[in-house]
Design a protein that fits this description.
Blueprint lengths: L9 H6 L3 E5 L2 E6 L4 H10 L2 E4 L4 E6 L3 H8 L11 E8 L5 E11 L2 E6 L4 H10 L6 E4 L3 E7 L3 H5 L15 E6 L2 E6 L8 E7 H14 L3 E2 L2 H10 L34 H10 L3 E8 L10 E4 L2 E12 L4 E9 L8 E6 L2 E8 L12
Parallel strand pairs: 3-13
Antiparallel strand pairs: 1-2, 3-9, 4-7, 4-8, 5-6, 6-7, 9-12, 10-11, 11-12, 14-17, 14-19, 15-16, 15-18, 16-17, 18-19
Helix pairs in contact: 2-7
Length: 364
Amino acid sequence: MASLKKTPLYKNHISGGAKMAPFAGFEMPLYYKAGIIAEHNAVRTRAGLFDVSHMGQLRVTGLSAPSYFNKITPSDFHRVLDFSCKYTVLTNENGGIIDDLIITRISRDEFHVVVNAGCRDKDFSWFKENLVEGVKLDFLEKQALIAIQGPESEKILQNLVDAPLNKIGYMKAGFANIFGEKCFITRTGYTGEDGFEVSISEKNAGKLWDDLVNKHNVQPAGLGARDVLRLEMGYPLYGHDMNDETTPLEAGLGWVMSKDNSGYIGIGKIKDQKTAGLIRKRAGLVFNEKVVAREGAEIYKNGKKVGVITSGGFSPILQKPISMGFLETALSNDNEEVDVDVRGKFYKAIIKKYPFINVNTKKA
């Protein structure tokens, strides 16, 4: 068995008392001494800090880069403005999702890409396999990535950067100096709160982490809190709520597909599905009983199996269990009542549109 990789912040996690666990080939913090609920609440009320250095980062350069992205994603990158971030997906020949990712346009011929940790190897291979002439890939293996999330993120991070963060709107980006290093900063995240992701060198990553935790009292948070936060927002997790057999339409991500992009990989299969109509669709579920329906739990309607749960957990905001899953399209409407089999016992659930809670990201 291959040994687990470590991010540049591994020593910071150990000294901070983190409970470590394997995730996507890395040894990552699951939670800290405060616990998952306290970490979740810190993000929702003030600020929390995440190590997301296990994510894959790369720079894509060349005048043909927008056309390249229009080939491998269903989005239109000819229309994306400089320093704007775009959430999209990589699609295969069958219209399935290889991964979801964020691509930021820095200038006409330069882009910054962040992919999921568990998909980085296959994503990087796909980028290479479909490379077009005049485009260069630069894999940023020595860069760490730190996310600060929460309503006070801007105020706190501003103490450490030399550029006005209030000039960076939601899903926008910029550069700022931290400890004399030019860092790439995006106003993005995976929590539904205001916040930033900072791409910084391995050399300075530990110092930034320690300054935020020790000097500015930011709560470090692990994978457990991150999962609950994204679930409350209805954000899909790759490998669970979507995979290479799930189309963007089924995953509820049809909005990433641009009508101006008609040449991307897998468009034929997706058009066929659109014409035939969706058989299944991702939906949210809320339970009134305190039972958590996790991945694999089956969904029923009138005694007939109609779907399956893909993610589940307890929402500290709603004080109720919530889940996401795929079910027959006709039953994915708001307020539809279904039954979910959790360890051999059936529990009532109500279909609800996600996000399950209010979005608090800063408006552009």
